[in-house]
């Protein structure tokens, strides 16, 4: 049946020049004016034959990781505090249940305790 099949892939991109109006499907919510969104059909790229013609989970060329990563992408390489790690059965709460396997636990060596008022 058509209702159980996949539709076309769509790519939504911000475009400040698009001033279309999108009517709200919910009666009590206002329409979106302007939408500032351009929609186009998206076709997945063909996977390179030299890679076996299938998806490989590798980083794209030019991606910065670790201490070279951009701001907003947290990494332990950019952490200003000294720390060490231990592998232990820490019983980390996962969806309300303690983990059954070992976890990597990050332990900060010297970190200044802050009061709740400092964060306000």
Overview features:
120 residues; mainly beta; two-stranded antiparallel ribbon; XRN1_D1; 5'-3' exoribonuclease 1 D1 domain-containing protein
Mind explaining what this structure looks like?
The protein is extended. The protein is an all-beta fold and 120 residues long. It is built from no helices and 6 strands. The chain has a two-stranded antiparallel ribbon with strand order 1-2. Strands 3-6 form a two-stranded antiparallel ribbon. Strands 4-5 form a two-stranded antiparallel ribbon. The protein has one domain. The protein has strands at residues 10-14, 37-41, 83-88, 93-94, 97-98, 103-108. The model has no long low-confidence stretch (mean pLDDT 81). Pfam families: XRN1_D1. Residues 59-118 form the 5'-3' exoribonuclease 1 D1 domain.
Q: What's a quick, concise take on this entry?
A:
With 120 residues, this protein is mainly beta. The chain has no helices and six strands.
Secondary structure layout plus pairing:
Blueprint: E1 10-14, E2 37-41, E3 83-88, E4 93-94, E5 97-98, E6 103-108
Antiparallel strand pairs: 1-2, 3-6, 4-5
């Amino acid at each position: 049946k058509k209702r159980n099949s996949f539709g076309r892939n769509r790519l939504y991109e911000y475009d400040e020049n698009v001033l279309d109006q999108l009517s709200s499907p919910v009666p009590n919510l206002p329409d979106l004016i302007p939408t500032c969104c351009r929609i186009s059909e998206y076709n997945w790229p063909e996977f390179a034959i030299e890679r076996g013609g299938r998806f490989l989970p590798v980083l794209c060329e030019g991606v910065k990781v670790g201490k070279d990563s951009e701001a907003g992408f947290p990494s332990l390489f950019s952490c200003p505090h000294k720390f060490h790690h231990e592998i232990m059965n820490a019983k980390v709460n996962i969806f309300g249940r303690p983990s059954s396997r070992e976890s990597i636990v990050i332990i900060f060596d010297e970190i200044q305790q802050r009061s709740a008022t400092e964060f306000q």
